[in-house]
Specification:
single chain; 263 residues; alpha+beta; Glutaredoxin; 2 domains; five-stranded mixed β-sheet; two-stranded antiparallel sheet; 13 strands; 19% strand; globular
């Protein structure tokens, strides 16, 4: 009897665990397939906030890295949380969209218009509370959003039962020439991670300070943690290099002082 009961409990536990691990049907086609190094199609066209068509290539190749942000403007929850997270993070950066980097917030809902994009832009720029000429809100045009999402591995689908899109929360970093460089996940983003991600995506084209280059050297992107983490070996190397530089500068000053005293 005890063995039978134990077997039933184990079987029930296995079934429960399987149900926990099973992905809900409505989320099976949702997520991100990372496609690092992929170059996006610059010929894809979107509709700008003023209603005019704008090719993707005109928004790239500006010498700045780009944050690609897929949403749909009428989303009842997640998209607003993501946009709020982006706004809070970039508010903590000293950099400005349109100067050191750009942001493309693109609706993947083909029914949404440029008027809705313009309204969203006005609301979030008001919340950002400083000029951001490089933050664009774009509506779809001839399924360009769907094609671009497929190119960068961003997966979503329409849930007929709930009458809304099922999608995930992610930011995609592009190099200035439109190559996928990095993915960041979640609804809140550390300003530190954005800063290093943008520096990395720029591939040396953005004139970052020595401090950014040192931080990028000491920190490395961890895909499991989905964040930038300290790399002890690089920190030790950087510390060693700094020690050598300080020692060299000290010796140089002493040598110059000795020469001055002799002369």
């Amino acid at each position: 009897m005890k063995r039978t009961l134990l077997s039933l409990l184990l079987a029930a536990g296995t079934i429960v665990q399987a149900q926990i691990n099973k992905t809900p049907r409505e989320l099976e086609d949702v997520g991100v397939d990372e496609k690092l190094g992929t170059v996006v199609d610059g010929s894809l066209e979107f509709v700008a906030e003023n209603g005019r068509p704008v090719p993707l290539h005109s928004l790239l190749n500006q010498g700045r890295p780009v944050i690609l942000n897929f949403v749909y403007f009428s989303c009842p929850m997640l998209c607003s949380m993501v946009l709020n997270g982006v706004t809070a993070s970039i508010r903590d950066l000293s950099w400005t969209p349109g100067k050191e980097y750009d942001i493309l917030t693109i609706s993947f809902d083909p029914r949404e218009t440029h008027e809705l994009a313009a309204a969203k832009k006005q609301a979030y720029l008001a919340s950002f509370d400083r000029p951001a000429p490089g933050w664009r809100f774009l509506a779809d045009n001839n399924d360009s959003a769907k094609k671009l999402a497929a190119q960068v591995g961003y997966k979503y689908h329409w849930d007929k039962t709930r009458q809304q899109y099922a999608h995930t929360a992610a930011l995609i970093m592009l190099t200035p020439d439109g190559k996928v460089a990095r993915y960041l996940y979640g609804i809140k983003y550390k300003a530190f991670d954005l800063r290093l991600g943008l520096t990395e995506a720029a591939q040396g084209r953005m004139q970052g300070s020595k401090m950014e280059r040192m931080l990028l050297y000491c920190f490395q992107y961890d895909p499991n943690a989905r964040s930038y983490v300290m790399t002890a070996r690089n920190i030790m190397r950087a510390g060693g290099a700094m020690t050598v530089l300080i020692l060299g500068a000290t010796l140089m000053r002493l040598w110059r002082r000795e020469r001055e005293q002799v002369s």
